[in-house]
Amino acid sequence: MKEPENNGEDGDFATRGIHSGENTCSRTGALKAPVYYASSFEFEGVEDGAQKCEDFHAGYCYTRQSNPSQTVFEGKIAELEEAEAALAFATGTGAVSGLLLHHLTPGDHVIADKTTYSSTHYVLENLLGKFGVNTSFIDTGDLEKVEEAIREETELIYIESPANPTIKIIDIEGIADLGRKHSILTAIDSTFATPYLQSPLNLGMDVVIHSATKYIGGHSDAMGGVLAGSQKMMDNIRHDTLKNIGAVISPRNAYIFSRGLETLEVRMKKHCRSARKIAGFFKEHEKIKNVNYPGLESHPGHENARKQMTDYGGMISFEVKGGLEAGKKVMENVELCTLAVDLGHVKTLIEHPASMTHWYVDREQRLESGITDGLVRISIGLEDAENIREDLEQALASL
To answer: EC (predicted)?
Structure first.
């Protein structure tokens, strides 16, 4: 595997993750800011209340709009993404929906990749589709096809990189350039990469999205999502969709994610290091037909990954020979790896998209998206890499 062009070894990511935001309690000096379990806040008077209800920058009014624990998390994300501002939601899909519902109106057109995360695909095609928003699901890895798909009414180009569950890599800077050229908003779901592995805003994207439930939290014990971008857009989404739809992150979960960001770098380094070893093992295995990992030179997005990522991530998907039943059999025989549909956990998590996360997707559509019957997705955890390999070896021996 070739090293990424920017391996991030000399960066200050960990320092910023630890020290950004309001880390201490100004009242007591406690090293960790408390969790503010408050739904509403007392005003000093009518004028003070009026200001805070109208503008969250003036202070806290109601947790459906903002909360001190949420502010700490948003501040850390904004710092790590080098964004003007960030905005937290109750879930990753809440963040996606918050952006889409704010930005799109009937008659608008969206360009998205055909392998877009299933819930995002559903919102675009089914929920927004019935209100007159049209989406073209295409191969966004082909910039010529993306430009050909642009219409006068196109308002958004939406991508994922790396994509779920195929680990497809998109040329982020190329998409951003097209957005600027045609005055179209560009957004990326960067959940698999985390703020540590890539910086989409610095590559020209307008909005970056994370499901904080995954690597940012790291322990599958909290749900949340976050957007990062311009101050103006984050403020507008807060007052428009977050406040009025109510996909609000809990103070407890905001605290969990703030803490997760403090250890994100050290965790991601181990995830990446072990994933490289496991990907190499898969590549040589006789019962595996194909391996999707951007660190492999055989991956079609390898060169883009080298340019835009500091490392190749902890997510791998692979296709076992034997199709649907073979994929299921591997699931039934893992012992150390945990059978679960989450990812980014300290434990290695494994799942079979065709029978689990994408069970409701039409098979023809699923296959066209690259999600084959025998595809398996694995999130490499923090266990010893050799222990993970041994478990996968014995599971594959069952085929």
So the answer is: 4.4.1.2
